């Protein structure tokens, strides 16, 4: 579905760069992966499959993502932890009207200081990606997690 290897490599690089950015702890990088008008939603699989709108996190603009970054850096108090994303190769469903519709499985490993690493969240990204003068960006990223059980707080982006 991708027209050439260069397009496929750009898409794969977007996924890798996103994971690297959210694992780095430099939260100011995160909103830059999205268009100005975008959707980012972290939602349980059950709600997604039933068409229910309830989501654990839901943002509808790059400005809202920047507000979340401010909250992470300035107002939220929690035990510090590291996270590591393992993201599968993107599966492209279609390319239409300049948009790439793709998905990829993910697992997020969380490591708290002086504790063993544990699986924090697992699921799939369902993405709508557009080309911009600054490269590929997410117009929509749905992180649909598999388990109905999640930690009592999700601080960092998935």
From TrEMBL:
Name used for this protein in its record = Salicylate hydroxylase
Q: Which domain of life is it from?
A: Bacteria
Family recorded in the similarity comment: Belongs to the bacterial ring-hydroxylating dioxygenase beta subunit family.
**Alphabetical keyword list:** Oxidoreductase
Q: Where is the SnoaL-like domain?
A: 5-141
- Source organism (scientific name): Paraburkholderia phytofirmans OLGA172
One GO molecular-function annotation for this sequence?
Answer: oxidoreductase activity
């Amino acid at each position: 579905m991708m027209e050439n290897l260069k397009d496929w490599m750009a898409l794969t690089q977007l996924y890798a760069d996103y994971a690297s950015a959210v694992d780095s702890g430099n939260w100011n990088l995160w909103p830059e992966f999205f268009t100005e008008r975008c959707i980012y939603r972290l939602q349980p699989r059950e709600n997604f499959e039933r068409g229910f709108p309830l989501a654990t996190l839901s943002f509808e603009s790059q400005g809202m993502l920047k507000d979340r970054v401010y909250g992470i850096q300035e107002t939220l108090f929690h035990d510090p932890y590291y996270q590591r994303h393992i993201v599968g190769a993107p599966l492209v469903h279609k390319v239409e009207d300049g948009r790439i519709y793709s998905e990829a499985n993910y697992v997020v490993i969380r490591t708290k200081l002086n504790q063993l690493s544990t699986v924090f969240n697992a699921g799939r990204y369902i993405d709508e990606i557009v080309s911009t003068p600054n490269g590929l960006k997410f117009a929509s990223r749905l992180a649909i997690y598999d388990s109905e059980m999640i930690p009592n707080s999700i601080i960092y982006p998935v």
